[in-house]
Design brief:
- Its main location: membrane.
- It is a multi-pass membrane protein.
- InterPro entries: DoxX.
- With about 140 residues, the chain is mostly helical.
- The radius of gyration is 16 Å and the shape is elongated.
- Helices cover about 75% and strands about 0% of the residues.
- The chain has one domain.
Length: about 140
């Protein structure tokens, strides 16, 4: 990760994932009708909405801190996998005539975070105490 273009690219992935997650928090935390509809449909209203919003906030913060990018990316991948699965099984791609925007944003965060996990895999492995890296 020493090359300048890779560093710029990783920051683009980090900022894209974090900004998308952060901008959706307003809707979750303010109980916007679309968020309430989504989490009611999933049987998770209101605690699921607030809890997942809180996890997205934590993931966003961890992603932008260089020493914890891998942990934030891992958390974001998990959250977005749940969101994508919810869209594919219960919600549908289009939710309340949004044209699939929420699904697309979940995919974007998932892809950016998965790429970050690949780039920062050694950092993630370093957090597992019983795995020893070889030089």
């Amino acid at each position: 990760m020493t090359s300048v273009p890779l560093n710029i690219l990783t920051w683009l992935f980090r900022l894209a994932a974090a900004i998308i997650m952060l901008q959706t928090l307003y809707f979750k935390f303010s109980a916007a009708p679309e968020s309430v509809y989504i989490f009611t449909t999933l049987g998770l209203e209101p605690w699921g909405r607030i809890g997942i919003g809180s996890l997205e906030l934590v993931a966003s913060i961890l992603i932008v801190i260089p020493k914890t990018t891998s942990l934030g990316a891992l958390l974001a991948v998990g959250i977005m996998a749940g969101a994508i699965l919810s869209h594919l099984t219960k919600l549908g791609i289009v939710v309340q005539n949004d044209g699939g925007q929420l699904f697309t944003l979940a995919l974007a965060v998932f892809i950016c975070s998965a790429i970050l996990l690949i780039i920062y895999r050694k950092q993630l492995i370093s957090y597992i105490p019983f795995i020893h890296q070889q030089a």
